């Protein structure tokens, strides 16, 4: 993974919620993380901190599994990160997620969005203009706790649009563990 260059004015990081459990009688919005998901959340938080993927703000879906993903990932960061719990991210389409992102203040340079598929994957594919092996893998599958980093040469989040981003990184807990 490369450091953000000055020409890339904004960095968008997508973290799909980690693996959830499916307890009987629990509504989808209230599904908790599984043991595997709790481990992956901590792992990905540590990876992000180690790689200096430090968000200025995090937008978290209100679903329990996304909340737990962030709560387990965030202790890896040494600084406080502004957090917004965002109802519109739950079960959101790519267009809805993009509208939420576009409303982010311009002083936020690195934005982390923790949400759900298929919306995150569809939006990532829509935003990215650069081909490559990571993009091919992302087209094939965006697993739970997967991390996508997209850089933009824009001054304001309201300028984020289809084909304006450059894929910097796509990794998963399995790939992080394999490289450890």
UniProtKB/TrEMBL annotation:
It comes from Borborobacter arsenicus. InterPro entries: His_Pase_superF_clade-1, His_PPase_superfam. It comes from the Bacteria. Signal peptide: none annotated. This is Histidine phosphatase family protein. PANTHER family: OS09G0287300 PROTEIN.
